[in-house]
Design brief:
With about 180 residues, this protein is of the alpha/beta class. It contains eight helices and eight strands, in the order H-E-H-E-H-E-H-H-E-E-E-H-E-H-E-H.
Length: about 180
């Protein structure tokens, strides 16, 4: 449901998904501006999103991450804050390493991801723990002209497997390049 909201308000922004979200997103959107970063190194989706946002400032980028992935590369938040671009990090916090067996994420329920994003220097940070408030605030959060960070508290789904990319990586790259040159 959280990703359905992203699909509704994203406009012409690039959407980079990683890990579990890559398995859900293709049912919601399959355009050349969608990039499923699989195989992904956990935590590297933000870096890819930042690179795309820096070179496509007129378009903007939404990078969808899980809490486990963000913990693998917390330093990316500082990098984002120090290279301002229209990058919108959407954190899906389910407290689990969902696709590696459902293990609890270290610090689950105790880590203040919004506080970490603010401390890193990201200028626009919001937390949503109810679907209705996310629906009401998503358009503002995903259209902010500088980096934004959205912390969504969602339910985990045990038993998930690593998703397959919706298209081969070479095809995804070619589609995205073509869309970005238009």
């Amino acid at each position: 449901e959280a990703l359905e909201v992203v699909a509704t308000v994203r406009g012409q922004q690039v959407v980079v998904t990683t890990m579990s979200s890559s398995g859900i997103w293709p049912a919601l959107s399959d355009t050349p501006l969608d990039f499923a970063y699989i195989p992904s190194s956990m935590g590297q989706g933000i870096a890819l999103g930042l690179g795309l946002a820096l070179t496509n400032r007129h378009r903007g980028v939404i990078a969808v991450m899980g809490d486990g992935s963000l913990l693998m590369n917390l330093g990316s938040l500082v990098t984002v804050a120090n290279h301002p671009a229209p990058l919108h990090v959407v954190l899906l916090d389910n407290g689990l390493y969902e696709i590696t067996g459902g293990q609890a994420v270290a610090g689950s329920g105790r880590t203040d991801f919004a506080g970490l994003a603010r401390a890193a220097g990201i200028p626009f940070v919001r937390t949503f723990d109810e679907l209705e408030s996310w629906k009401a605030g998503a358009a503002e959060a995903l259209s902010y002209p500088a980096p934004s960070f959205v912390w969504l508290k969602v339910e985990g789904r045990l038993g998930q497997k690593t998703p397959l990319p919706p298209h081969p990586m070479a095809m995804q790259i070619a589609r995205l390049q073509g869309a970005l040159t238009m």
